[in-house]
Amino acid sequence: MTEGYDDFDRFVEGDEADITGEADAEDLLRQAVDVVTTAKPMPLSASVLISREEVLDLLEGALAALPEELRQARWLLREREQFRAEQQREADALMEEVKVQAERMVSRTELVRQAKLTAQKIVDDADEAARRMRHEAEDYCDQKLAGMEIVLNRVLKTVVAGRERLQPSLESAEPLQGFDEQLEEGEESFFDQDQR
Length: 196
Description:
Strand content: under 5%
Low-confidence stretches: 1-21
Largest sheet: 2 strands, antiparallel
Number of strands: 2
Shape: rod-shaped
Number of domains: 2
Mean pLDDT: 77
Helix content: over 70%
């Protein structure tokens, strides 16, 4: 409760020091308390002797000063509320600005994340296309080699068959005799790939 009086004292001592030149209500009440506490005791009694006029003047002055002091206290309260409202508006504006900046940063982070995902998808698609092309090329080469294998097998069989034919005749024939005749016979059985 004394904090309110301290604030009020600071206010009164500052800008609005008692315009009428009279003491404020608190001072007047303190003076009234002082009059009562310093009053002379009555003999053989717990009562004290005080000046009625002096105490009444102090109390009436305090009552007269109260409306002005209440007005000043209300003014102080209103000023304080306005100050708090202004500070709250500034804090709200700052929070809104921070929120917008945070959203921008999140948006940038989201853009970077999306760009990374897109780049990764492009790389994955390229890897898949390269893998597919490699398999297609391997399949093509395998088909061509299989075809060549078939042709070479036929040629090999023809060569083996030709050699087998030549074997019995070479063993029984005398060297260099009848070579021309065998050559003529061999020409008929010669395999020509183009004449298939």
